[in-house]
């Protein structure tokens, strides 16, 4: 039997998952999962430890393949959609910052790797917004965990287009002010017509947009 987690929203195209099945080893994490993620949605992917949230995010980001079912964007397979690839911003659980680079260099490296290269002034402004500008010349290895997270998340502060953000535990290691900053970035992306799909074990309550939930609980068969 299919599990329908469709989130209803009428604005524009989005990601559609049909009968999605993912296994890890011998374990079926979820089976025949159906949902849509559309423009203007802020979606909290929830589920207990090991329920398959990271695995689902990786599949949506195109980093691994589902064992069954399809993912599409505007009727086209997700993996073949240039529009989807251009909108996708995926951030995994790890910060993916190079320890020996300074914070500014690490952000520059990250944006270049992801094809989002921009001016030094804009990167400095993003680091300032994330409250780590005063640490921009320090090597990443000398930053605290929360500061590293803020540098990595500065990538989101550089985005100006309506993006499709897929974020695994973005709030990890952040203090209350950091949490508020990142939620504000979510709201801005959603308000310009983007989508944010994220996991978090910390309850969040962004102001100004509706928060929807996609629950993986009970989807195993
Ligand atoms: N490469 C792998 N090989 C085998 N099993 C894996 C692999 N990666 C993940 N798993 C298993 O898949 C299940 C789901 O893992 P996943 O990381 O997707 O869960 P999660 O919901 O993100 O968990 P958490 O809340 O703890 O971060 C776990 O039981 C895990 O052990």
TrEMBL record:
Keyword annotations: ATP-binding, Cell membrane, Cytochrome c-type biogenesis, Membrane, Nucleotide-binding, Translocase, Transport
Pfam families xref list: ABC_tran (PF00005)
Taxonomy, superkingdom: Bacteria
InterPro entries, sorted: AAA+_ATPase, ABC_transporter-like_ATP-bd, ABC_transporter-like_CS, ABC_transptr_haem_export_CcmA, P-loop_NTPase
Start and end residues of each ABC transporter domain: 15-221
PROSITE patterns per UniProt: ABC_TRANSPORTER_1, ABC_TRANSPORTER_2
GO process annotations (BP): cytochrome complex assembly
UniProt cross-references to SUPFAM superfamilies, sorted A to Z: P-loop containing nucleoside triphosphate hydrolases
Gene Ontology molecular function, alphabetical: ATP binding; ATP hydrolysis activity; transmembrane transporter activity
Family annotation (PANTHER family): ABC TRANSPORTER I FAMILY MEMBER 1
Protein name: Cytochrome c biogenesis heme-transporting ATPase CcmA
Originating organism: Rhodoferax lacus
């Amino acid at each position: 039997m299919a599990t329908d987690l469709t989130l209803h929203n009428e604005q524009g195209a989005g990601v559609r998952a049909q009968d999605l099945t993912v296994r890890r080893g011998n374990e079926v994490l979820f089976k025949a999962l159906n949902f849509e993620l559309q423009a203007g949605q802020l979606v909290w992917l929830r589920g207990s430890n090991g329920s398959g949230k990271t695995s689902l995010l990786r599949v949506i980001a195109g980093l691994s393949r589902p064992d069954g079912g399809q993912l599409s964007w505007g009727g086209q397979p997700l993996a073949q959609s240039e529009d989807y690839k251009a909108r996708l911003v995926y951030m995994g659980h790890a910060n993916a910052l190079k320890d020996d680079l300074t914070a500014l260099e690490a952000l520059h490296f990250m944006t270049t790797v992801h094809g989002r290269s921009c001016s030094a002034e804009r990167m400095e402004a993003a680091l300032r917004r994330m409250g780590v500008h005063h640490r921009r010349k320090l090597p990443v290895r000398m930053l605290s965990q929360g500061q590293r997270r803020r540098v990595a998340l500065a990538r989101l502060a550089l985005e100006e287009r309506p993006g499709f953000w897929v974020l695994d535990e973005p709030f990890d290691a952040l203090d209350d002010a950091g949490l508020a900053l990142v939620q504000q970035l979510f709201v801005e992306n959603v308000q310009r017509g983007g989508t944010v799909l994220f996991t978090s074990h910390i309850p969040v309550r962004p102001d100004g947009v509706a928060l929807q939930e996609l629950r993986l609980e009970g989807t195993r068969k």
